[in-house]
Amino acid sequence: MGTVYLAFDPLLEIRCALKVMNTGEVDEELHQRFLLEARSAAKLNHPSIVSIYNMDEDRKRPYIVMEYVPGEDLKALVERRQFVPFDQKLSIIKKICEGLQYAHDKGVIHRDIKPGNIRIMPSGAAKILDFGLARLESADLTRTGVPMGTPYYMSPEQVRGSRNLDCRSDVFSLGVVLYEWLTYCRPFEAENPTAIYLAIVSDSHRPLLDAMPGCAEELAGILDRALAKDRKLRYSSCQEFAEALTEFEQRLPAIRAGLVQTVAQLETEFAGCQAEGARNNMSEWFEKEVFHDEQVFDASPEAGVLSDEAFNRKHDYAYLVQRRHWLEARLRKIGQQLRKVLPLLALIEQSQQQMDKGELEACLSTLDLVLEKAPSKRRALRMREACQLILQRQRKERDKRIRLKNALVQARRGMEQGSVAVCLPSVDRCLTLDSGNAEALELRRLLQERMSQRRRIQAWLTSGRRSLRDGNTQECLQAVENGLRLDPHNQELVLVRDAARRTLEIQRQKDRLLDLARQDMRRWEYPRALESIDEALRLAPQDATILELRDECFDALERHSRFEDLASLAKGSYRAGDYEACCEAVIQALQLIPDHVEMKQLQNDSLQRLGRKATGTAS
Known about the structure:
Structural class: alpha+beta
Number of strands: 9
């Protein structure tokens, strides 16, 4: 509704914020809302509400001079997930409650509480902004049938368009803000505003215990009550909401102490699992990064914005809740996987003993049991590979030479036949067996050249077909000619070229016939024009242009026939001396062919004779 500028008051020598109503938005209702914002906020003088200094108009554009509040909006902090201690979050929300309670006591309902309308100062103080949707007890300004507010943060009664909003609507919106700040997700999410409205009115919000697993049920209960659909079940005022947060805050040290102890025990248990896994090289037997410690923090505080480097974030309630949940889940996963891994580790140890004793066949059998259940474990695969190398080294060398020879024979045959499907796998097998084999490398080079040529030909063929299908005959011919330069005997390209040429010839004939038809129509030779059109339709029966011209010719033929009849009637009437009938017929004829010279002349003659006749009668 307005643009806010940072300004300087030279008289008071202070910086201030200047909110100017946007050009192009000034209708009477928005004007009144803008003035209502100023009046609403001007009534209020509270540390948590931005102060209004003045209001005036400049060239019919109203503006408000208000207190400049350094810092940034809560919305920005939430979007980048900046770390703010849990206690400070509660403190700021309580300050907002105090400001809203003050406004409510003055008869002002904000109606648009959201993170973007809460300014957080570097000191930790918070101020409520933008009373543009506020409702005074003495005013009732709203858009008929349009919910006023920001969809995600509107109360159910706002969504329903209730005109009887009270302070509990702001309680609901502030509950949404606190929920989002704690969890970085909103209690009601949907793809569009309509779906959001429906969710707010009809659906239960996502439980806080789902969005913030492990948090205190008391905290979840506070938000459940603040977000109650029925406002009778909500906190009756922001003061009551703040008191509930204060009661929880008073019990928070004891809750946090228990959490610290629990997390410390879980950390010790997890560290033991990490050490055991590293000592026995067990990491490959578990899911990826199961022993990795994911220390997840919100973004670091920036200079000048709630920065408190001395605060130990590991003692923060929200971090402790998150950490406990993560550790419990990770330890459960380790326990589940350990029950599967221990029998396999015993088999690995057994196979190692068999290998040390030279019992290679028995070792391979034991390793097969391991790999049947864990086919990708590197230690088992390395041990099996070592056994197989000892048993099969000579046989593999002999088999390698035979396979290389056979693969080269197949590759040569495939190259002679022009079969990529035969040649390429054979060349790959050759190079797998002997990566430096000169003949295989040469075959691969020739094959790559041939495949590259085929790809280019296929690309031209595809382009030609697409152009032909889209009616771009010249582009089709150009693409086909490019392909035929690479492979002059390619039948697919020849077929597309011939089809394009036929299409081009048909188009030329059709254009010629249509030109003839249009010329005949301009000369009023409609039968000849229809003959040309019919001949064109035989070439392209469904062509919209031809069909449209045929309809136009029929219409013109009908008009011309009607014109001839009217012209004949007019001439007959003229000869019979019935000049009034002649004029009437001429007028109808000229409606069909307005510029017909003979009819205009006949009309003038008839009018003149009627005039002389009228003069003679008068005499």
